[in-house]
Amino acid sequence: MKRRAFLIQTAGLAAAPVIGLSGCGHATPVGKADLPDAVWRTLAAVHAHLFPSEANAPGAAELDTLGYLRATLETPGFDPDERAAIVRGAEVVEARSRAHAGKTFAALAEAEREAVLRAVEATDTGRTWLTGMLNYLIEALLADPVYGGNPNGAGWRWLDHNPGFPRPPAEKRWFLLKQV
Amino acid sequence: MTGAADEFDICVIGSGAGGGPVAWRLAQAGYRVAVLEKGPWFTEKDFYKDELACCRRRAYFPDAHAEPKMLETREEDGPWQSRPAHAAGWDLWNGNMVGGATNLMSGHFHRLKPVDFRLLSEFGPIEGANVADWPISYDDLEPWYTLVEREVGISGKVVAHPFQEPRSTPDFPYPPTREHPIAGWIDAAAKALGYHPFPTPRAILSQPAGGRGGCSYSGYCGSYGCATGAKGSSRAALIQRAVATGRCEVRPHAMTYRLESDATGKAVAAHYFDRDGREHQVRARLFAVACQAIETARLLLLSPGPRHPKGLANGSGQVGKNLIFAGGGSGSGRLSHAKFGPPLREFGSFVNRALQDWYEIDDPAFGPRAKGGTIDLVEVHPAPIARAAPMLEDDGKLVWGAPLKRKLEGYFRYGKGVKIEAFCDWLPHDDCYVTLDPVLKDKWGLPVARLRVDFHPKNLEIGWYLANKGAEVLKQLGAEEVIAYAVGNPPTNLQAGGCRFGHDPKTSVLDPDCRAHECENLFVSDGSFMPTGGSVPPTWTIYANAFRVAERMAAQLGRT
């Protein structure tokens, strides 16, 4: 158990967040968690739209929601079907963007992004995918920073939330407790 | 291939509120005890304020896909529909670890009252319900309630009210846990209405005792494991002490799949799988089954023997019948920082208020005198993701972007919420029971529990009545957005019944000592024995009865 925990922690360090902020704040972690770069670019733009950065309130970039999503995807035992669904959803978003405006989702103006995502929401699978993304977003906002989002408690501070104590150390993250 | 058997005086299957008292009392009495627990053995060092661990990823629970249950429900009088419980959004596992669900309880503890032991005699039959008197009285159980106060650790203060049950001691052994100012505001509001609020007893040590820490008031509590040992889990309060005697061996990751009985009908061995799927067995003179109501019934049904063709102790066909939960209602109100000022911001202390003015309802506007229930008023749980998640949808449409962020700000920064939790009897009836599913198997290839769950309409009437009374108090207090409602679906964490105790072997599985009528060395020591559940959460009663059963087991061993 101890050795396994050590290996997992080490792996986590090796895959430490290298989310570059580029252009208008889109995180683009490349080649992580077995997702194609193009998918990460789509997810970055989708997250930025679903939880935008504002002067007085953190957005997806400040909350490192993509870092959180990547850490979640790298969790031992992560459901491969869910991983595939995340990829398919991103592809659907891109297909709708091209059909709508002949551009990638990241290149769309805000109103166009909204129209594309509302169209995605109108289908059952699209709604499920968006619900999943929003759930990852609020987890990145409010889960303990040990899981890769909510850096330094930025989400808690914004919402005036007291996280209580003791807080989980890395070696006691939920997927490690499952190995006890 | 089953390995060589280990021999013990007592084998306890399950280590929660029904198992811990038996393990501790019998180990203390000098007997060799084996505890078979299907979950892992966590300690205080494994419990953090981690919403992903406790609740979102459920680190302390089995994988619902690997260990499913089948659920059969219906809408109104429509056809019965079955699907795996997890597919219906139900999780009927309540803590898969040494100490069981008590690790994760909030520990709002109430005793039953004398009237609960004779519901049929007091109120007469109810159409469509299988109401029965208990074969013991409140007086029989009272000493054991008192023992739980001391040994598990209950903090509180006795305050007179019209339905205060008799006590053999003047007050609780531990002073009340620290109170949030909201508790005082509730007192004032309820008293202004002529009601009698009192501090809810908590199975939480308000000060260190017996090697356990006192409450650290860290915020959160229910659904989260306790990092100081203050919470009176079976593990912290009893199992650890049983192990310390040197006579109790706890085997975690031990999934008991069959109780073997011999040609005379006696139980002789518990067979279990270890975490690697290897088979083992424990032989003992006495067995206590305490797997929580649904799994206890399942284990007995999985254990036919030469004298038990329909499952162990199931000659009457009563195993699994009359499963009960807690009926009731719910509601909430919000207190704003703007109105209640800085005291509202106090963090970590408890609201802890209850009302039992309507434990029996004698109200012409309601109808004939009826059994009512209990209202607990508690702070809305601070778990942030659970509170944020409902904001992702509005009128059937997903919410995101700036509108979502404004909703979150408005909700989180507004103030605090107070929740109404109303408890009434879950009336036992013919459409609430456990059998084995003929098709669905768990990861060990064993038939899973199949539940049919419907509720008696009377639950809703009482639930509405109580929830509205709670709402009246919140409105008087000055809460905003006060809502109240009754709930038909059961709280899946409050399970009981399925192996009723009684005098008649034709209508009950257990005798008044919770020994199986048909198997002299088999006891059931969890909440399965309860013919009716009272109008409170059952945990204190389960603990108390398990201590009583332990005494009967010790007496039986002393005789043999």
Strand order of the largest sheet of chain A: 1-2
Largest interface: A-B, 41 and 39 residues
Q: How many strand elements of chain B? A: 24
Q: Shape of chain B, please?
A: globular
Radius of gyration of chain B: 23 Å
Q: Please give the oligomerization state of what you see.
A: heterodimer
> What is the residue-averaged pLDDT of chain B?
97
How far apart are the first and last residues' alpha carbons of chain A, in Å?
Answer: 7 Å
Overall helicity of chain B: 10-25%
The structure class of chain B reads alpha+beta
Could you tell me how far the N terminus lies from the C terminus of chain B, measured between alpha carbons in angstroms?
A: 32 Å
Unreliably modeled segments of chain A: 1-27
The chain-level structural class of chain A is: mainly alpha
Strand content of chain A: under 5%
Q: Major β-sheet of chain B, in short? A: 8 strands, mixed
For the largest beta-sheet of chain A, the strand count, sense and barrel status come to: 2 strands, antiparallel
Task: Report on this structure.
The complex is a heterodimer of chains A (180) and B (560). Chain A is mostly helical and 180 residues long. Helices cover 57% and strands 2% of the residues of chain A. Chain A has a two-stranded antiparallel ribbon. In chain A, strand 1 and strand 2 (26-27) form a beta hairpin. In chain A, helix 4 (65-73) crosses helix 7 and helix 5 crosses helix 6. Chain B is an alpha+beta fold and 560 residues long. Helices cover 23% and strands 23% of the residues of chain B. Chain B is built from 12 helices and 24 strands. In chain B, the strands form 6 sheets. In chain B, strands 1, 2, 6, 7, 8, 9, 23 and 24 form an 8-stranded mixed β-sheet that branches. In chain B, a hairpin with a 5-residue loop joins strand 19 (432-441) and strand 20 (447-453). In chain B, helix 1 (20-28) packs parallel to helix 6 (234-244) and helix 4 crosses helix 12. The longest helix of chain B is centred in the C-terminal third of the chain and has 21 residues, at 457-477. Chain B is globular and about 70 Å long. The mean pLDDT of chain B is 97. The interface between A and B is large, with 41 and 39 residues.
